[in-house]
Each structure stands twice: as C-alpha cells, then as structure tokens.
Request: fold
Amino acid sequence: MGASQLTVRVVRKQMEAEGICSFELADLAGAPLPPFSAGSHIDVHIPGGMTRQYSLCNPPTEQQRYVIAVLNDAQSRGGSRAMHEAVQEGSTLQIGTPRNHFPLKPEAGRHLLLAGGIGITPMLCMAEALADEGLPFAMHYCARSRRCAAFIDHLAHAPYAERVQFHFDDEDPAQRLDIPALLAEASAEVHLYVCGPKGFMDAVLDTARRLGWADERLHYEFFAASVDIAGGAFEVKLASSGKTVVVPAEHTVAQALANAGVEVPVSCGQGICGTCLVRVLEGEPDHRDLYLSPEEQARNDQFTPCCSRARSPTLVLDL
Reply:
C-alpha cells in the first residue's frame, strides 16, 4: 500500500434520503486524517475490486473524520450498490488521500453554488467552508422531491440557512429554479459552482455560456459519464522512447498502453476525475472527457487516455 493510501473504518452509516447513504470514515487508531479543502474527493476501493470517487461533504476544519454520501444509482456500474450492500458500520476500507479538482476560487467576489440531487455533497462542504470563513455565497439545491434530498435538515438548521434555497420538482412550480433568471442577474465578480446529474449540469453551463459567462468563472464536477470509446484505430508514440503503440478500435488508449507494458494511472475510467491526464506533444485528440473545460480541450495539449481518442493518425504523448 503506497503512501497515498489509507485504511479507515466505517464508524457510522446512515440513510440521508431515499437511496442516499452517508458513511463516516475514521482512522483505525483515532489519529487525525490528512487535511482537505472544500471540493476535495477521495478514491474509495470498494469490495469487488472497484475504485470510485466520492466528494467529502463534512467541514474541512474536521480532522478526525471524512464523510461521504453515496446514491444507490440503478444506472451505475456496481460501485454504489456495493457501498450500500457490502459496506457496513465496522467495515474497513482502503481509500486514497484527498485530492481537489473542484476548489473554491479565492479571487471570487461571491460564490454561487448550484447542486442537483447527489451533487449536494461537494456543495455542502463548500458552504461549510465559506460560512466558516465569512465569505459571501448563495446555494440553490434542486431535487426531485424532499424525500430524495440529502442533508436538507442539516442545511435548514445551519448558521447559514438563509443563504440556502430548495427547489423540488414535485412542488409548486413557482419555487422551481429559474436558471436563466438567476444567472442573468449575477454580477461579474460571481463565480459559479455546479454539480449533479449531467442533464442538470449541461442546462446550467449551457445557459451560463449563452449569457456570456467566461469559462474561468464556471467550475463544475461530474459524477458519472456515459462514455463512448468507439472509433477507428490510431497510434500513440511515447516521446521518451519513440515507441509506437497501436490503439485498436475496441480498446482505449490506457488499455492499449497497459497491454504494451506502459501503465498510466486510471481511476474513474470515465473521463471525469483527471487522474490519467497526459500531455499531448503532437497530434489532435478526440476529447470525450468531462474533466477538461472546452477552452482546455481546444488547446489540444492534454487529454484523458481512459476515454478520449485521436482525430489525427498519431498522437505523441509525454510518456
């Protein structure tokens, strides 16, 4: 087990909403856990050999525990079901140390947090951190219904409760979130953070871009992706050795490299976590990830070999 791996115990497992369970994780001996910042996630090695990423949702000031929440998603690849069914209070888990691809931006004059469904997990942590630091923010939390919304009692009774608005699909239409109106009235110093189902996030981000929001003010984290890896064969060339590896139509770049003895660290396998990100020195990638922003994708100087492919016959990689 590497230095970046920890063994923790599940000290509490609790239903937070319909289909959503929280897990409180602590060091086996009660020692402080590595620090984290708002927006951080951990890799959780789940029984059955799967690794999944879950956002930390407790305040970053807490050193004795990590709290994650998991939606038992019928469309998942099995990780969430294993967390709900195979992991119990008292279970031990291997986890990675916290990493943050979704940080709060200190240059923001105000922070606007938009959460859809299980996307509340990083937003809860952000709200706790912003409130603790006395920084201005507002949160909007959208869910199908109250019974499907995790942590609503906590948010309703939090010291910052007046900054949180709830929007439920099955209640009065007047209280539903008007995304265009909300984003149109935001001033230029506001930074937007969004997390939730892909349809919700696409609606928010597409609206923001249509209204002229600059990409540097848009911050987001996808939980799951529907990844299409299909495409024709191409080659990748390793800059350090000049070795060329053929990527067949039915394989990802990461798989082809692994078959050739070149290991690239892969975690989510869906292009959402950034673990496998590799620099591209020559050639044009066919970006299929949800991690890079459109502006970053347009630069074509990095890509995710777990799911992205090539538009050019060859990609030269910084490997």
In short: Residues 1 and 46 are 15 Å apart (CA to CA). DSSP finds seven helices and 18 strands in the chain.
